[in-house]
Structure formats: C-alpha cells, structure tokens
C-alpha cells in the first residue's frame, strides 16, 4: 500500500473547497490516515518546495503557501501517487482537463488548489515535514477485494 502527502492550498481553503476536494479523494476509494488544518511556517514551506529553490517563482510560491491555513493530509492506496496526480490534473490550469480537481475548480496558475506528492520518495519526505509518526493512524477500512 502506497502513501502520499496531499494538501488543500490556501486558495482552496479560502474558496471553501476543502470538503469537495476530500470527497473526491474519498470517492476514489483512497484511505485517509492523517489530516490537520494548519498554518505552515516559512521554514516548513521552504523545505516542502526545496526542489524549486532558485527558480524565479520560488519566493512567490513560499509566500502563497504560507499566506493562510492549509489542510494537510496523508492518504493511502495502491499506486496512489500516480492516481492522485491524475485526479488533481495538470499544474497549469490552462492544461488541467475537466473532471480533474484543478480542471473543474482552478482558473489561475499558480493558484491550483491542491498539492500532491510526485513520487513515493517525495511523499516520504513531505509526510515527515508535516506529520509525526504517531499522527499517522492505523485502522481497517473495508474495500471490496474485487476492486
Ligand atoms: P504541487 O507541487 O503544488 O503539487 O504542484 P505540481 O507538482 O503540479 O507542480 P510543481 O512543478 O511542483 O510546482 C509547484 C507549484 O508551484 C507553482 N508554480 N508556479 N509561476 C509558475 O511558473 C509556477 N510554476 C509552478 C504552482 O502552484 C505549482 O503547483
Ligand atoms: Mg510538485
């Protein structure tokens, strides 16, 4: 079972989309194992987006992600890193297809509502940046074995 880190960004919170975004992830059958509504610190934001350090939009990106509360989550599922990014849609809102979260709700890059890890390695690093091990819950969620 794979894990991923996902986050409703400040624009998603401001627009009242936390519930609808979580519903889409639940509808897909993913399993929520952690979640918290929080304000990200600047240091945490810089660690989270370390791969983009030095790029022209880095300061703007850190400013955006720390501009208000986010809803941070950890989800589990088979191939969840790839599947969740398919559900999210493309980074640029002009390329995000209808039916995806960004395609249906986002209209201005870089305000694309949701973050999802881009590899299992990124997921492990990002989860550790936002959650303590004890916050990741273990429980049974019944999913029919023919899915
Ligand atoms: P994310 O990390 O937030 O899930 O998004 P992503 O993988 O689809 O995109 P990534 O390339 O990692 O970029 C991270 C976030 O930076 C903002 N961005 N701004 N101004 C720009 O050219 C630009 N490019 C990217 C977006 O908010 C993007 O989600
Ligand atoms: Mg990314």
TrEMBL record:
Ranges of residues in domain Nucleoside diphosphate kinase-like: 1-138
Binding locations of ATP: 9, 57, 85, 91, 102, 112
The EC number(s) this enzyme carries: 2.7.4.6
One GO CC term on file: cytoplasm
Catalytic activity field: dZDP + ATP = dZTP + ADP; a ribonucleoside 5'-diphosphate + ATP = a ribonucleoside 5'-triphosphate + ADP; a 2'-deoxyribonucleoside 5'-diphosphate + ATP = a 2'-deoxyribonucleoside 5'-triphosphate + ADP
Xref: InterPro entries: NDK-like_dom (IPR034907), NDK-like_dom_sf (IPR036850), Nucleoside_diP_kinase (IPR001564), Nucleoside_diP_kinase_AS (IPR023005)
Keywords: ATP-binding, Cytoplasm, Kinase, Magnesium, Metal-binding, Nucleotide metabolism, Nucleotide-binding, Phosphoprotein, Transferase
Molecular function per GO: ATP binding; metal ion binding; nucleoside diphosphate kinase activity
Catalytic residues of the enzyme: 115
UniProt subcellular location: Cytoplasm
Example GO biological process: GTP biosynthetic process
Cofactor: Mg(2+)
Role: (Microbial infection) Catalyzes the phosphorylation of dZDP to dZTP, when the bacterium is infected by a phage that produces the substrate for the synthesis of dZTP (2- amino-2'-deoxyadenosine 5'-triphosphate), which is then used by the phage as a DNA polymerase substrate. Major role in the synthesis of nucleoside triphosphates other than ATP. The ATP gamma phosphate is transferred to the NDP beta phosphate via a ping-pong mechanism, using a phosphorylated active-site intermediate.
Matches recorded under PANTHER family: NUCLEOSIDE DIPHOSPHATE KINASE
NCBIfam families recorded: PRK00668.1 (NF001908)
Protein family per UniProt: Belongs to the NDK family.
Subunit structure: Homotetramer.
The protein, known as: Nucleoside diphosphate kinase
Source organism of this protein record: Paenibacillus yonginensis
């Amino acid at each position: 079972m794979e894990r991923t880190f996902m986050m409703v960004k400040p624009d998603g919170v401001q627009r009242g989309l936390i519930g609808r975004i979580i519903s889409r992830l639940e509808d897909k059958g993913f399993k929520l194992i952690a979640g918290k509504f929080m304000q990200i610190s600047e240091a945490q934001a810089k660690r989270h987006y370390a791969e983009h350090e030095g790029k022209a939009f880095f300061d703007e990106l850190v400013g955006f992600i720390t501009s208000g509360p986010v809803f941070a989550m950890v989800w589990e599922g088979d191939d969840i890193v790839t599947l969740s990014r398919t559900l999210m849609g493309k980074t640029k809102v002009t390329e995000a297809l209808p039916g995806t979260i960004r395609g249906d709700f986002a209209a201005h890059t870089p305000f694309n509502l949701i973050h999802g890890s881009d590899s299992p390695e990124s997921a492990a690093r990002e989860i550790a940046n936002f959650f303590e091990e004890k916050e990741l819950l273990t429980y049974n969620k019944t999913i029919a074995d023919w899915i």
